[in-house]
Amino acid sequence: MEIVVTEEIIARQPPEAQAIIRALLAQIARMQSRIAKLEAEVEELRRQVKGATPQNSSLPPSAQHPHAKPKPRVRKGKKRRGGQPGHTKHERALIPTEECNQVVSLKPTACRRCGSKLSGSDVDPLRHQVWELPEIKPHVTEYQRHRLDCQCGATTCAALPPGVPHGQSGPRLMAFTALLMAYYRQSKRRTAEFLETVLGQPCSAALTVKIQTKVTNAARPAYEELAAALPSQTHVNADETATKEQNGKAWLWTFVAQYFTVFSIRGTRAATAVDELLTEAFGGIVTCDRAKMYWRVGRVQWCWAHLKRDFQALIDRGDSQAKRLGYDLRRMTCKLFEHWGDYRHGRISRAAFVRRMTPVRREVERLLLRGIASNNKSFVGMCRELYDHREWLWQFVGHEEVEPTNNAGERALRHAVIWRKLSFGTQSAGGSRFVETMLTVIETCRQQRRNAFDYLTDAVQAHLNGHSAPSLLSGP
């Protein structure tokens, strides 16, 4: 039951009690007003979070499922799903007859109307081709090592030829198994099951572990060569993501150069990882987010895609002053990307792009000064940090090889993020070496338009012959 305290009830109380009751009633009224205001703010935040996506908020792209479908912005039309009447037909082109494995000639024996007997051949028959997988059988080579006795009493056994593995898995099988686990993100049990049921290759989860160790040892020299070449690059894109090793925290780092990419799993996110990978010899520019472990590099390009999300976060706040500043900064960011798009697609020259960026830079720095002068605690720190390091906002204007975003780093890391979500990290240091080596080879081959399977096969074969893997620095 709700108790209603009226003035009549208060008037019947002693003066001291009346003062206490009125003070308590005033305090209750203030608390009720504050509760109502907080409930309204919570409801507004729930509404914002419910519809927040990396496209309309400060959420990073990794927060969204890779196969998430964006909400349609327009109403669906009245057209039915699928091809529309009159659309251009798309079909697989027929290959030449002489390239077919088998040609079956089909001739009718009787007329379909009167039943009369038919003979002869059609000079231009209708061609119908059916594609089918060949029966997959493992190619097994048996090496019979004879052991012969000598008249001196010694027994000599023939050695295996150079390049023949001591195990039962050949170079192509080992390369394919490694790609199934690293490139196609299959677990060890699923990989073993696929090899056994589809390829007819007896396999177990334990064998896949042995194969991944051999492939890691084969490709590791090429990986170390790429890692040693990182400090000599004039520009790299850098990014990192959390992972696990033996159920402990770890970080997967990626550094993308012009022609190759290096991944590394480290137990820390501290700047020491940057020091170890780039070393003191690095004199180039690092494109990255505003994480402070990259600051020690000295020459940094902050990613404007990340900054745009930061400006969107200002808009999402309830503070009207922050919202106005966020709108102004986001407007200039959109203008920046508009000029960059014109330059990248060849619609304007480099000199014209630099001229267009001058007023954009002047306006952005003016807005940052406005944010600093506001003394608004919700964004004054961010504005001061951006203004104090304003040169890190515009490296892409003065250096042609630098882009305004870290898209190259995030694209390279995307495959690794999906792998991490499916595998939950690695279970040993050896597993981490396999992952970083394979991710490096796969992404570098993609950059160089090389066939990753062919490269890994050559690397394993070279390792079996006692040679180093082919270099990935020289390109395909």
How is the secondary structure organized here?
Layout: H1 7-11, H2 15-50, E1 147-149, E2 155-157, H3 171-182, H4 188-197, H5 205-229, E3 235-245, E4 248-256, E5 261-266, H6 271-278, E6 285-288, E7 300-302, H7 304-316, H8 320-344, H9 350-374, H10 380-388, H11 395-398, H12 407-423, H13 429-447, H14 452-464
Parallel strand pairs: 3-6, 6-7
Antiparallel strand pairs: 1-2, 3-4, 4-5
Helix pairs in contact: 3-5, 3-14, 4-5, 5-13, 5-14, 7-8, 8-9, 9-10
Any overview of this molecule?
This protein has 476 residues and is α/β, with parallel strands linked by helices. Among the domains are: 171-234 and 242-298 and 414-464, no CATH class; 304-398, no CATH class. Helices cover 46% and strands 8% of the residues. It contains 14 helices and seven strands. The strands form two sheets. Strands 5-4-3-6-7 form a five-stranded mixed β-sheet. Strands 1-2 form a two-stranded antiparallel ribbon. Helix 5 (205-229) crosses helix 13 (429-447) and helix 9 (350-374) packs across helix 10 (380-388). The model has no long low-confidence stretch (mean pLDDT 89).
